[in-house]
Amino acid sequence: MIEVRYDPWLVAASVAVAVMAAFTCLRLTSGLSATSTDVRKARIAEAAIALGGGIWSMHFVAMMAVQLNVVIFYDPLRTLGSALIAVLVTGTALLLLHFGERTPGRIVVAGCLTGIGIVAMHYLGMSAITGNCLVAFGPWGVALASAIGIGASILAMEMAYRKRTRRATLTGSVLLGLAVSAMHYSAMAFTTFRLTDSPSVTAVPALSQGSLALIVALAAFVICGLFLLMAVPGEMSAADAGDVRPEAAVGRTAPARLAERVAARLPDQSAVLSKAFVRGRQTAVAQVTRIPYEKDNTIRFLPSSAILAVRAEGHYTRIQDAQGEFFCPWSISRIEAALDPETFLRTHRSYLVNRQHISGFRKSGDKGACFLGEGTGLEVPVSRGRLQQVEALLGLT
């Protein structure tokens, strides 16, 4: 049996590639419910390539980290097949999550598919090894690696899709990247390499393993970075920059064109605000009684009195009522300027809450949380800098 050693730097690089790929995928699929079907399909395809290609790149870099005393090569057809399997299976999981109602059961199934894709990619890629050695897999190793890959993928998907916040996306990315890495290295712990009786391969690769791994890792990061740049709108909003001024600039993206249609249908006072949204500057500060949102490719309006909370999501927002959460094309700064300041309170840079719907409050150290509605389970964070103000308005000080 051949002794197996690992290059620690390449091991770390492989984990970084997996986490980066997972983050790119989850970021690309954020906010897809507010887009058209064609745009959603294109973004899911990009996310599947980023995640599936990233999983394959992680595996390849991790195999380059393996230091053996013999030269090994990879069958090109099986190597390509392992990459395609990873892309297709993860793409299927993403389609399941973003078309149709996203239920807990669907999230579990999507996690199972992702885990199965990781396992299938790994073992098909390992079967592509040729050269002066034979590769053997222990049955317990296959079972353990499969359980880790599927279980960790379900946990990562649950964490990422339970609440589509930036924190959840980041946490889910780390968990999914670690799931891919844990599956690979647990499988390798039960994999053995043995010399063949009659060595037949004596050629030496033109590139060292370290150089090849570096090229693959850099290519994975560049591809993920390009996908992320393609998904970023042309201009940055004040909400993203942490600026809460109402004169945030907004580009003419699809939601901006939606606001133009909203402007044509709103009453006079709301039309003024919608047109101001399209121009990118606040031209009116009159409070409105209805906020536009989109559902099933239809523009609808939610009375401000029914809004429980508003959550910033990139350039736009999610508004929450007792029935659920909906996409709104306005930034949180725009909504804050439009709504009654005596009713709506900024508890966090990313959250507005309706004081009339606050049903509970919890303080934890120098931070807190407001509970909204009855039986909704909606909890909104209160930041350190706004804690005293919230406590005073609730009559707690």
Automatic annotation (TrEMBL):
Residues 6-194 form the MHYT domain. The chain crosses the membrane at residues 6-26, 47-74, 80-100, 107-125, 137-156, 168-190, 210-232. Residues 291-396 form the HTH LytTR-type domain. Keywords: Membrane, Transmembrane, Transmembrane helix. It holds the Pfam family LytTR. GO terms for molecular function: DNA binding. GO terms for cellular component: membrane. The keyword Cell wall biogenesis/degradation does not apply. The keyword Membrane applies. This is MHYT domain-containing protein, NO-binding membrane sensor. It comes from Tistlia consotensis USBA 355.
